[in-house]
Amino acid sequence: MKVRRIIKQEVDAPGLGERIKRARESSNCSVTQLAKNVGISRNYWYQLEAEAVLGGVAEETLRKIEEVLGVDLGVKFKE
Prior knowledge:
It contains four helices and no strands.
């Protein structure tokens, strides 16, 4: 039998919503298309830009946003 430990790690990322918004505005894609490519709703995308997401955003979602936009948003975790 295996035993799994899940470690929750969080990092503050002030201004992340604004960086996402600027990257989106620099892209040639609509919010609807970007959100679809990431696998989130359009409403959630706008909540991220407004930094109105309670509990923060999952790293996996953030990395997908970076991939879709072709940017590094500068969020790093201590390993």
